[in-house]
Amino acid sequence: MLYITQLIYLKEGQENVFHQFEELAIPIISKYHGKLLLRLRPDDNAFIENNVEKPYEIHLVLFDAEKDFDNFMQDKERQKFLHLKEKSIKSVLLIKGVAL
């Protein structure tokens, strides 16, 4: 099992474009043996301490194997609307992990 955590940072004023991208991308996860476990949009009160910029959203996704994640990233349908991601997302911090 592979866990993917993403801290997602948006370009200012591009929230609606990002939401359009997510509506299209998230359903494709299951096509590759993946599952969205958490999708959080933390507000300022959710942070006890931080030494990095506060993300717009935090995602935790589980894939059966790294190959499934790789296939998701290369999905042809997903690639058709990557322009929405590029227009809306400033940066992403992606963390790969396994359950201990």
Shape: globular
Under CATH, the topology is which?
Alpha-Beta Plaits
| Count of domain modules | 1
Report the count of strand segments: 4
- Tell me the major beta sheet: 4 strands, antiparallel
Indicate the mean pLDDT.
Answer: 96
Strand content: 25-35%
- CATH class division: Alpha Beta
Class per helix and strand makeup: alpha+beta
Assigned CATH architecture:
2-Layer Sandwich
The percentage helix is: 25-40%
* Widest β-sheet, arrangement of strands: 2-3-1-4
- How far do the termini sit from each other? 11 Å
Enumerate the spans where pLDDT stays under 50 for 5 or more consecutive residues.
none
Number of helices: 4
Instruction: Kindly provide the radius of gyration, computed on alpha-carbon positions and rounded to a whole number of angstroms.
Output: 14 Å
Order of helices and strands: EHEEHHHE
Oligomer: single chain
